Amino acid sequence: MTKEKYLLKEVISSFDFVGTLISCEPYGSGHINDTFLLEYKIRHMGVVPIILQKMNTNIFKQPIELMENILNVTAFLREKIIENNGDPERETLTVILNKQGLPFYKDSHNQYWRAYHFITCATGYDEVKCDEDFYQSALAFGKFQRLLADYPAQTLHETIPDFHNTKARFKVFKEAVEKDIYGRAKDVLTEIQFILEREDVANVLTDMQLPLRVTHNDTKLNNVLIDDKTHQGICVIDLDTVMPGLAINDFGDSIRFGASTGAEDEKDLSLIQCDMHLFEVYTKGFIEGCDGKLTDEEIKALPLGAKVMTFECGMRFLTDYLQGDTYFKIRYPEHNLDRCRTQLKLVDDMEKKWDTMNEIVSKHNK
Fold it and tell me: What is the DSSP letter of 39?
């Protein structure tokens, strides 16, 4: 038995999974946690799937606090879903406790694991293939805001401190430029100047009095499960970065990722724009999903959320490039630089379309 299989056997035996284990295979396309799909055969019930994950403690350094967040938020969501006559088994994640009643297991190598019930007959898509999928993801993330509107956000732990503190990230960026430990700054002066000229973008949200809310902080399309039969967005997943934040940041991260006309690492910047049709599709769905739970000031600030999150992401890519590519995984030496350039191109395009973006938000703010 290999070391990995021996460890998996140890971890699996720490949970009270029901039935006979018939398969255990790596699962999904995530880059942070190691995920496995377990299948158990239960007499007269057929096959029951389980998701087992080894948590990445290099990124999430407080796994116990992280799981406390997830357990509390999903319990709150279950109550709200039941109140709305929904199906909590499909509309939120269900954490499986270990034999000691804990929402995680610490193995003999001091690694942390967790388990969820697998939500069947639903799919998470890695890219926007049609308007309806993007709209459904917007509805789902908006509903996530609506259901958690009464949750005391300040009681949540910060799973990654200052994750969307753009002002703090701007300071780190300037330090990376000044130190220039890999001698790369001379080749990216245009990108550096673009960011330095927009310090106001980095600071703008700290000067606004927007409500602190429970935020997801990784609102990509593939973090919403879409029902295979109804094609409706049914469940928001990947709750590792759920913590206190601003609703407009969740909106903005979705736009940055989903309304771009090209891939995040597209080399041909002429292909990169912020698609106003997709921007409107998402705006409509997000506002509908929130269903009146956002303040008027928050809704008016949605375009700003898109710009700030895109700017922040581009700045983070360039910071990582200057620091030697220590955070984001890369496939080639200039990967982070290509990623940075697409984000800065999107910021530039948003600035050109600023009036249009605000008109679209105003149109759906009824």
Answer: E
